[in-house]
Design brief:
Length: 314
């Protein structure tokens, strides 16, 4: 496991994030993410790619039955453990590859959260499969990412225009210019650590449909999508804050366990079952309105009830 990219900026990220998140997390991303997460009291929660662990510790403070954070960066985990030691909350922090969490048995968690991380993980498919394995029945995966449609790294920029009129310049109009949306693959992301130092990490561009396929293939179904809008603090303090009132740069997704599509012998049996139910329904209709019906009329639908902000901090 080589996470030297993230090791190099671990201390800088910790200083920015603190215990409440940096401006973009605190005033744009986290409020919506936490709204989707909902109450965690009594839940077993995994904070995937946890960074300095501020969310995992928050979940512990809010009554999670178990709160665990994992991250691939050794220096980042060391920082998270140091924060936990200074103010113990009973949170466990592991250095682990997100696509290989074999230390946890199947169904270990009720909730997995990944905050602004999935787009920075090379083996996203393996990671999502591990998440699905770790979720207990009714478990949920809640994650935030850069918006695949509007935040395509260096291939997306803001354009601000003013219409020139005889009476003077009109109010500015903001546009989001995007190119290369379908160009999936690794991309370098700059982090402006100081006025004179810029470091890079690797991100992995994926389309919106690409993320949907990752979830589907792992047996997870999307149950909620949210596009965070900036809170007043972000509008006031970030140059991009007012622009994001119109165009979102982040996406929050909730997914729940679903039955995998049948294949092989299971598919044959499923088709036979559908044919039998169809024949039964036809038979029921022939008996008249008052006759009892079998099949779908008696079935009930089941329901299934988890990073990165601005690189410049502006």
């Amino acid at each position: 496991m080589d996470d030297t990219e993230w090791d190099r900026i671990a201390a800088w990220r910790d200083e920015r994030m603190g215990e409440d998140g940096d401006l973009w997390h605190r005033a744009i991303i986290d409020p919506v993410l936490l709204e989707v997460v909902g109450p965690v009291r009594g839940l077993r929660v995994l904070d995937l790619a946890c960074g300095n662990g501020y969310l995992a510790r928050r979940f512990a403070r809010e009554g999670a039955a178990r709160s665990v954070g994992v991250d691939g960066s050794a220096k980042t985990i060391a920082i998270a453990r140091a924060r936990e030691a200074a103010d113990p909350r009973g949170v466990r922090f592991d250095r682990s590859d997100s696509s290989d969490l074999r230390q946890f048995p199947d169904g270990t968690f009720d909730l997995v959260v990944a905050n602004m991380a999935l787009m920075d993980i090379a083996d996203a498919a393996g990671t999502v499969r591990e998440v699905a394995r770790l979720l207990d029945d009714g478990g949920r995966f809640v994650f935030s990412i850069g918006h695949p449609c509007f935040d395509t790294d260096r291939d997306s920029v803001w354009v601000v225009e003013r219409e020139l009129r005889d009476t003077g310049l009109s109010e500015a109009r903001v546009w989001r210019k995007v190119s290369g949306y379908r160009e999936e693959g690794a991309k370098p992301i700059p982090w402006h650590v100081s006025e004179s130092v810029t470091m890079t990490t690797t991100s992995y561009r994926r389309t919106l449909s690409g993320y949907a396929r990752l979830l589907r293939d792992a047996g997870l179904a999307i149950t909620r999508l949210e596009e965070p809008a900036p809170r007043p603090e972000a509008i006031e303090k970030s140059v991009q804050g007012p622009f994001m009132v119109e165009i979102p740069l982040h996406l929050v997704v909730e997914a729940a366990r679903s039955a995998p599509p049948p294949s092989g012998l299971s598919a044959v049996r499923a088709r036979e079952g559908r044919r039998a139910r169809s024949a039964s329904r036809r038979s029921g209709r022939s008996r008249g309105r008052g006759s009892p019906r079998s099949g779908s009329a008696r079935r009930r639908r089941g329901s299934g009830s988890v990073g990165r902000g601005s690189t410049s901090g502006s």
